[in-house]
């Protein structure tokens, strides 16, 4: 079976309902991304301001064929007065998980950010219990850097995270 073709594209107004589902539906957000109900208008407000593409970060829709399946996002992490890196992640609809779509989307985002920004480093992190995302990041060329103890409060308790990074000079997989 060949891998599904994954495409990243800017968020359109019609995509806002999809994004809002990740903030209002626990089953859509998934077990590692549900932090309780938050204001679903935040996507719409940011879309009105800058179409979810700004100098400090952005979001793109992940599609397979014409079907929107989730999003990738990145945000600026200021390291020093003259240095920053990106922190990135992905969220997919439940029906898109486990198909390699997230791995391919994250690799495409890494390539995009290195091609269009001057950063040396891109970071990603996930909960220590999220083995599927750890595998996806490693397949997309990220290196595990370490455990972040007690970094995330979710579902009534503090949880450990795992930090990953990829550097501009690191070899990236040809395809995943």
TrEMBL record:
Pfam families (UniProt xref): Acetyltransf_3 (PF13302)
Matching PROSITE patterns: GNAT
Keywords per UniProt: Acyltransferase, Transferase
Classification via Gene3D superfamilies: 3.40.630.30
Coiled-coil zones: none
Entries under InterPro entries matching the protein: Acyl_CoA_acyltransferase, GNAT_dom, N-acetyltransferase
A GO molecular-function descriptor: acyltransferase activity, transferring groups other than amino-acyl groups
Stretches assigned to the N-acetyltransferase domain: 6-169
PANTHER family recorded: [RIBOSOMAL PROTEIN US5]-ALANINE N-ACETYLTRANSFERASE, GNAT FAMILY, PUTATIVE (AFU_ORTHOLOGUE AFUA_3G00765)-RELATED-RELATED
Family named by the database record: Belongs to the acetyltransferase family. RimJ subfamily.
Protein name: Alanine acetyltransferase
């Amino acid at each position: 079976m060949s891998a599904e073709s994954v495409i990243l594209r800017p968020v359109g107004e019609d995509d806002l309902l999809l994004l809002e589902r990740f903030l209002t539906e626990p089953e859509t957000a998934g077990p590692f991304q549900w932090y309780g109900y938050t204001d679903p208008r935040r996507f719409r407000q940011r879309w009105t301001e800058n179409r979810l593409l700004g100098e400090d970060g952005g979001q793109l829709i992940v599609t397979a064929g014409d079907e929107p399946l989730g999003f990738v996002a990145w945000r600026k992490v200021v390291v020093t007065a003259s240095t920053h890196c990106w922190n990135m992640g992905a969220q997919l609809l439940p029906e898109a998980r486990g198909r390699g779509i997230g791995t391919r989307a994250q690799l495409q985002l890494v390539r995009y950010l290195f091609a269009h920004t001057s950063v040396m480093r891109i970071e990603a992190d996930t909960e220590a219990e999220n083995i599927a995302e750890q595998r996806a990041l490693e397949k997309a060329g990220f290196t595990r850097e370490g455990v972040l103890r007690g970094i995330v409060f979710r579902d009534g308790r503090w949880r450990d995270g795992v930090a990953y990074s990829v550097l501009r000079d690191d070899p990236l997989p040809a395809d995943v």
